[in-house]
Each structure stands twice: as C-alpha cells, then as structure tokens.
Specification:
The chain is 33% helix and 20% strand. By secondary structure, it is of the alpha+beta class. It folds into two domains: 146 residues, Alpha-Beta Complex (Ribosomal Protein L22, Chain A), CATH 3.90.470; 101 residues, Alpha-Beta Complex (Ribosomal Protein L22, Chain A). It has a four-stranded antiparallel sheet with strand order 1-11-12-8. A four-stranded mixed sheet has the order 2-3-7-6. Strands 4-5 form a two-stranded antiparallel ribbon. β9 and β10 form a beta hairpin. α1 crosses α9, α2 packs across α6 and α3 packs across α6. The two termini are 24 Å apart. The N terminus and C terminus are likely disordered.
Length: 312
C-alpha cells in the first residue's frame, strides 16, 4: 500500500478522534456513542480460538466482533471430518459454488460465524443450527433469546459480530477499493451528504465516502434489511469527536451506536449496534418458523447499474 493510500485510510477513521487498541491486527477506532464499548475486534487465528477471550468480551459488553482471514482457517476447515455437520444447511451452497476460492471462502466464513456464536453461548459449534431470515440475516434456531449475528467478508478478511444485547451489523471494505463517488452518490448518499462530500478534496472525499458506505451497510444489515433498504434514505451526521450518528433524531433511531476501525492497516470495518438489556440463554425444543435452508444470505455491494455482484 502506498503512503498516500495509508494516509487516506487512516484519515477516514481518525479525524478528529483516535484511540489505539492493543489487539494484534486491529487498527484505529472512532465513532462510538458516549459510553459505548470501543474495544477492538478479537483476532481469531483458527478453530483453536482464542475462544475464552471471545466469550469474556461477550460477557463483559454483551457483544463481540471477531476478525480473521480465510487462509488462516482453510487447512483446518478442509481437513475437519465434521465439515458437513458444521456447515449444516449451508452445505448445499458450499458444494454448488463452482470456483474453489469462492467455495473455500464461503465455508470458512460460515465456520467462523458458527464457532463465534458457539463461544458466546458456551456450547459446541456442531450443536448450533444457523439459518437465514427472509432478508438474509443469519440467525441461530432453537434459542429462547434473540442472539444477533452479522457476517462480512471482503478479499481475505472475514468479520463476524455476535450480540446478546440488541441488533448488530458489520461491514468491511478494503481501503484500496476505488468506488466512484460521481457514479454512486445518488445510490449511497442523501442530498446533504453528497453536498458535503463534494466540497472535500478528492483523497478525503474517497475516504469519507468509503466510511459512509460501510456504516450504512452495517446499519441496514443490523436492521435485517440488507440491500432492500435504499442507502440514500439513511442519513448520517458527524459529532464534534468525529463519531457517526444517524441524522434523524426520533424514538426509532435512539440507542444506535456506530464505530469504524482500520483493521490490518488495510480494511475499514464498521459496526452498527442497538443496545438492549442483558438476556439469558436457553435452548428450546421447537426452533420456530425461520427461513428455509435454501435461502442464501443477502448480497451486498451491488447497486443498480453497477454490474458488480455482491460478496457477503
């Protein structure tokens, strides 16, 4: 990555507030609400964990975000004799994905999600049944609590969020991605956001636009709407500390908090979370009516006329 790209990426998440987390591979952070946990995502290098750290983070804060790469998990995933059981209802899609790289990335992303949820619940991962709601949001069947899951992946990076205290959504993009502001402004930005971005220098505009994009995708994923909700109908504003807030102030928008982090000096990872009270977990016999196994997760990063398929 060139020096110019690195400066642009850091600018997107560090103006004007910066915190330096200690987690290996995690980067700079900004954009949380007052009192929000700003601990960095936990790096999980493979099926071996560290799951204790994941469980402790979830117990302390009610949620946890983990990050890894599909290459770190690939060998263990392919050699696992229980891969079919672990993938569960995702097994047919795994088998039907033609390109090896896409097939392996798909398998690993689902294993990371299932292992993370299992660590939070303190149960074996092969005992969880992950399904998908009509909007594509993943969920665990058979719980008597609302356990919220979100998954994002781009290039080699995989990010998973699990929350026991309200909806959560994550999105990730490489800072080297060159999304055309002129082409996509009408799809991504409100008129006020587009006007503010247009007044910025090119490099700063690109960084801010990418951050705004990931925030909106994280938010709509937390709502369970994914790409079904128009991004230009969701407005953000920035507070004095550089934190992101929903532009609309109403009962429906209160309680949301947002963070953006630079991970591995290459990826912007945005998280949207709506806090609710603590809950207890118990499995119940009847999983209830959820999406059929063949419903795939919602696709993302696809705008009308862009000709670009989604990658989540």
């Amino acid at each position: 990555m060139t020096g110019a790209k690195r400066w642009t990426a850091e600018q997107a998440v560090t103006e004007p507030a910066v915190t330096e987390p200690a987690d290996r591979g995690a980067g700079r952070t900004t954009g949380g609400a007052a009192g929000q946990d700003t601990a960095p995502p936990v790096h999980v290098a493979g099926p071996q964990g560290p799951w204790d750290a994941v469980r402790e983070r979830a117990e302390d804060t009610g949620r946890v975000v983990v990050h890894t790469t599909w290459g770190e998990w690939l060998t263990a995933a392919l050699l696992d004799p229980g891969l079919r059981t672990l993938l569960g209802r995702d097994w047919p899609r795994y088998r039907q994905t033609p390109a090896p790289a896409g097939r392996y990335a798909f398998a690993v992303s689902r294993l990371v999600m299932k292992h993370t949820a299992a660590a939070v619940l303190d149960v074996p991962p092969d005992g969880l049944d992950v399904a998908y709601e009509p909007g594509g949001r993943p969920t665990v069947r058979g719980l008597d609590e609302d356990l919220h899951l979100s998954l994002a992946h781009t290039e080699e990076l995989i990010v998973v969020a699990v929350s026991r205290r309200g909806p959560v959504g994550v999105d990730a993009e490489s800072v080297t991605r060159r999304a055309s502001f002129e082409l996509l402004r009408g799809h991504v930005c409100t008129p006020e956001e587009a006007e503010a971005l247009a007044a910025l220098p090119d490099a700063e505009r690109a960084a801010r636009f990418l951050r705004l994009w990931t925030l909106k995708e994280a938010y709509t994923k937390a709502l369970g709407q994914g790409m079904r909700r128009r991004f230009n109908a969701v407005g953000f504003r920035w507070d004095a500390d550089g934190g992101a807030r929903l532009a609309e102030e109403s009962d429906a928008t209160r309680g949301w908090s947002f963070t953006t982090r630079l991970i591995r000096e290459r990826y912007l990872v945005s998280e949207a979370h709506h806090a609710s009270g603590p809950v207890e977990s118990r499995l119940r016999a009847d999983p209830g009516g959820l999406a059929a196994p063949w419903l795939s997760p919602a696709r993302t990063l696809s705008f009308p006329g862009s000709g670009r398929p989604g990658g989540r």
